[in-house]
Design brief:
Layout lengths: L3 E2 L4 E3 L15 E2 L4 H4 L11 H6 L12 H9 L3 H12 L3 H14 L7 E7 L5 H14 L4 E6 L10 H7 L1 H4 L4 E4 L7 H17 L4 E6 L5 H6 L4 E7 L11 H6 L2 E5 L6 H15 L12 E4 L8 H18 L1 H27 L2 H15 L5 H16 L2
Helix pairs in contact: 3-4, 3-5, 4-5, 4-9, 15-16
The structure holds guanosine-5'-triphosphate and magnesium ion.
């Protein structure tokens, strides 16, 4: 049956019943030409021919950069280019992913020379304040500090930036500090990939300490643990483990616990919490081979205890470097990263297969009606996916 044309430039598809009326909500509106949607800067005549030749996309308001320009800019620690390189990495578009990979490939030899420190703890424990304090201390010591936030739950755009910017006010004004809020991304794997790649770019730009704050609760701790050398758990005294949302599992991931807010009337409580945790840690398997997890106290607000905390981290570096467990963990982390990428890639390919998706909806309906068992449905879908791949 031929498509019926309606006055306002729309069509009804073949499968609409003859006398369906308006209640049958199906109209296909004629599309617009993509050209007419392009902003001025994206029209062919306004594209920089040099970079267009190399095919490196960029946000429309910027002049496009070539791979070489990204690499050169990052290596010179041009902060604007560094930020743009990270934006490229964070993009989900296939074209950008490919471009980002070329940039990363060039930068890889310059990366890896930093100390990567993950910082976790319950909301309000003082992670951002501690990063501000520790970051300022490190800059005074001549370090260059990059701060990243990992928030796997964030699907909304950069939920954490406001809080972080106000907590890290001094640090964000420092020339030797680069703060990057959490990328907005729906999937955990996506965030982990982006944060890892961002870390490499920051290292190539010369940042020798990377501080990664976990934002949100749940899976972010294991994600961040899998990409850092040292993992710090920030706690507060007297709140109770339950209240702090701290499970034994998270303590087992940590290389040090710091009881924060040890100031004013709270000092004594913080010291006794430290003593309790030091005792409990004797019965917990350390997260790193050859290292005993330590408990310490500090006040991120006054800066008290921050140099001592850094001393613990430096001692960790020295001991694990000597025992090779530092380098071994990094090797394991890169291999795990590859596996994670394979897993993510397969999942993405499976769920973006149109045939599979269509059948998935069908079979889900059958399962909920009790007409089909989940293992059979999974087998049908996997076979369908496999068949679609065989030529
Ligand atoms: N007294 C005291 N207050 C502190 C200290 N560190 C942080 N705070 C306060 O605790 C509150 C929370 O601090 P943040 O640094 O935002 O805590 P956070 O762990 O980053 O919080 P989220 O990012 O929301 O999970 C703020 O009001 C800080 O001023 C400290 O050492 N002493
Ligand atoms: Mg914070």
């Amino acid at each position: 049956m031929p498509k019926k044309k309606k006055e306002n430039n729309s069509y009804t598809p073949d499968w609409v019943p003859e006398n369906a009326g308006e209640a049958f909500a199906t109209k296909i509106v004629k599309g617009v030409k993509p050209e007419s949607l392009k902003p001025e800067s994206l029209k062919p005549e306004s594209i920089n021919p040099e970079s267009a030749k190399k095919g490196f996309p960029a946000r429309s308001k910027h002049i496009r950069l070539s791979c070489e320009q990204y690499v050169e800019g990052v290596l010179k620690n041009d902060r604007t280019i560094l930020a743009r390189a990270i934006t490229l990495i964070e993009s989900n578009s296939r074209k950008h992913i490919e471009a980002a990979q070329s940039v990363l490939k060039e930068l890889l030899p310059y990366s890896g020379k930093s100390l990567r420190v993950g910082i976790t703890g319950s909301p309000g424990a003082g992670k951002s304040t501690l990063i501000e304090s520790l970051g300022m201390y490190l800059i005074e010591q001549g370090h260059k500090v990059a701060v990243l936030a990992v928030d796997p739950s964030s699907t909304v755009n950069r939920g954490s930036i406001l809080g972080d910017k106000t907590r890290m006010e001094k640090l964000s004004r420092e020339q030797n500090c680069f703060i990057r809020p959490s990328p907005s991304c729906g999937t955990l794997g996506g965030v982990a990939r982006k944060s890892r790649e961002t870390m490499l770019v920051c290292e190539a730009a010369g940042y020798d300490v990377i501080l990664v704050e976990t934002v949100g609760v749940g899976q972010s701790e294991t994600t961040v643990r899998s990409m850092v050398d040292f993992f710090l758990l920030v706690m507060i005294a007297g709140a109770g483990d339950e209240l702090q949302g701290i499970k034994k599992g998270v303590i087992e991931l940590a290389d040090a616990l710091v009881i924060n807010k040890a100031d004013g009337d709270n000092i004594q409580k913080a010291l006794s919490a430290m003593a309790e945790f030091s005792y409990a840690l004797k019965y917990i398997q350390p997260a790193t081979i050859g290292w005993k997890t330590e408990a310490t106290v500090c006040s991120a607000l006054t800066g008290e205890g921050i140099p001592e905390l850094w001393e613990v981290i430096e001692k960790f570096k020295k001991i694990t470097n000597a025992s090779k467990s530092f380098i071994n963990r990094r090797k394991i982390q890169t291999i795990e990263w590859m596996y994670k990428m394979i897993d993510d890639g397969l999942i993405e390919e499976f769920y973006s297969n149109r045939e599979v998706l269509y059948e998935l909806v069908n079979l889900t309906r059958k399962i909920s009606k009790g007409e089909l068992l989940p293992p059979s449905a999974a087998e049908i879908l996997l076979k369908m996916f496999r068949d679609s791949k065989s030529y």
